[in-house]
Amino acid sequence: MVSSFVTLYKMSYDTEHVRNAGDTPGTITGIPTFAELLENPSLADLYTSIRQAGTATGPELVETMTVSKKTVYGYLHKLEQAGLISKVGDETGTAVYTAQEFELTLTVRETEVSITPKIIEVIAQKNEYPAIERVLEDHGIVTFALAYDLVNAHSEGDVTIRQIASLTDLSPGTTYDLVEALYSILNLGDDGSTPTTYTPDEFDADEDDLLGEYVDK
Predict the structure, then answer these.
(1) What Rg value do the Cα atoms of the chain yield, rounded?
(2) Is residue 194 in some structural domain?
(3) How many domains in the chain?
(4) With contact defined as beta carbons under 8 Å apart, do 132 and 125 qualify?
(5) Residue 162, SS3?
């Protein structure tokens, strides 16, 4: 019986709720921490700082974060318990952390949304950019994630700001503020320029077709 159990445990298998389980599925005990990343910009900033640096130590993070030393180490423990960061070594007895990539996918009323480190990177700066917090609080994460993707499409010339507003049901002013914020955070635009606004006369007859294309996706 023990042998059979070990054999089963070493297999890669899928269940109704868990896919790609295998040798060591990984300890993920802090699911609430994923949700807190959406609400707590300081926690999101700490995770993002580690991810962007590749590796970081507690003292290095204390130097760069605006929260207290006690809070930094509390956040590190919380992120490690959630499986979002892990220790990869030590420097003269100091733990070195690296961030783990993740994708948290939620499906509500047939709408699926994925939360990734790219989304967290933006949310980490919501205190600096009020439009981000406004969209999250008034419209929720699904609308915010959709707007995030559409702003990236806008930077490629695929959609206009008016179309982003139509697809997300955001007001024109909020849409522009959010586009401007994401352009700044994500360094969008070839020349570092801010997004361009348009008058109604500048939209062509193809707009409805383009809107239909995104609605269908």
Answers:
(1) 21
(2) no
(3) 2
(4) yes
(5) helix
Domain span at 61: 16-97
Q: Kindly report the pTM of this predicted structure.
A: 0.76
d(CA 19, CA 14) in angstroms, rounded, equals 4
Measure the CA–CA gap between 155 and 195, rounded to whole angstroms: 8
Q: How far apart are CA 145 and CA 116, in angstroms?
A: 10
Digit-coded pLDDT (tens) for 58-95:
999 999 999 999 999 999 999 999 999 999 988 778 89
SS3 198: coil
Please report where in the chains the tokens 């130097």 appear, as a residue: 63
**Confidence class for position 28, pLDDT limits 50, 70, 90:** low
Query: Whole-angstrom distance between the N-terminal and C-terminal Cα of the chain?
Result: 49
Residue 39 to residue 137: CA distance in whole angstroms: 10
Quick one: pLDDT at residue 30? 66
Cβ-contact 55, 97 below 8 angstroms? yes
Q: Which CATH number do you get for residue 87? A: 1.10.10.10
Residue 167 · residue 121 · CB < 8 Å: no
